[in-house]
Amino acid sequence: MKSNRFGLIAVATVLSLALAGGVAAAQMVTQFQTVNAQVTQADAVAASHVSNIRIHVQLRQEALKGGNPAAWSLAPGTLDRLLGNSPPQSSPAIVTAPDTPTISFFPGRVTKGPGTVVVSAQSHSVFLNCAGDLCWGNPNPNTFLTNLGLSTFVHVLDQYAGSTANGRYTVGTAVNATFPIYAPANTLSQNDILQIVHASAVATGKLVGYGHIYHVFLPKGVDTCFDPSLGGGCYSPDNFSTFVFCAYHESVQFSDIGHVLYTVEPFQWPISSTNPGCSLPPGTPNGQVIDSTANALSHEFFETVSDPDPPNGFTVPLGPMSGFEIGDVCHGPFANLSLNGHSYAIQLEDSNTYEACVNSN
Questions:
Q1: Where are the strands (E) in 255-355, listed by range?
Q2: Assessment of whether the complete model's pTM goes beyond 0.90
Q3: What is the number of other CB atoms lying within 10 angstroms of the CB of residue 65?
Q4: For 55-59, what is the mean pLDDT?
Q5: What integer pLDDT is reported at residue 103 of this predicted model?
Q6: Who's near 138: CB < 8 A, 6+ residues apart?
Q7: CA angle 161, 166, 170 (to 5 degrees)
Q8: pLDDT one-digit tens code per residue, 190-215
């Protein structure tokens, strides 16, 4: 049989499907598919031919104490030039929000900009350089995404998406991606991430557009940084002088496969009492790795749905929180939430309906 750079693996997972009202539950078996993707020169070329790049960064809580969030603003065309586009086809934007106080209620509202929102979508986990998919805890993040999609918590998004239907956010084909990461730096650039995203989207059969969200999970010990001309901000828990963000979400237009939504999920580790970084403290229901990963992933998922092309979706329009997305408004405190009968320690999300940080609709 002719070899292919994409291998297909079927994984049977037993899910507990909560019925309406939570009165009863049924067991069902769902087949999750996983494809393999090796980043190639074609992906490198594609990463240098992108436009309409929009990024929103989830800052770690200590990053901007005494800092200036304006340093993260990009002049039109800057990122296009950094990525090798000539001439720039659009004006990209990096949007970031400073840390919020610990609050339960928020006295303002987010409003919608001129862009779209994600009414329904499949999530595609991209597991980088980890053949077993279990480097981020066992079970892997697909289980969290499945339980989130079957929960009442996900219906906080109804008010932003304009739909109350169940089953709008599901888990699709995952990707085991391979990309060389060299010591001692062990750092991925923005262009590296774009190559991985492109290879992953091609591996799934070019599942792109607003109906698909890719989540790129970085292995332990790997940092990722923006270009120094952007301020040099990184996810770098091993170097607190450059450690700025916990995760981010982005939209990008590839010239060959089109519009892609994705999040970048660094490994939420290490932590200590003096350097908490982005991770949750000990004692969470599933342990620090699973719950810290779920917390960052939940934040980015909710914001990708409500503001897929930042800042053109739902954001705070005015005041000191201007530019905040719905996850930023409630970033900081977390609670043990039951998602489809499974407990996770994750943050709440902002609700215009209640003008509060809530755990359900």
A1: 258-265, 314-315, 334-339, 342-347, 349-351
A2: no
A3: 8
A4: 91
A5: 37
A6: none
A7: 85
A8: 999 999 999 999 999 999 999 999 99
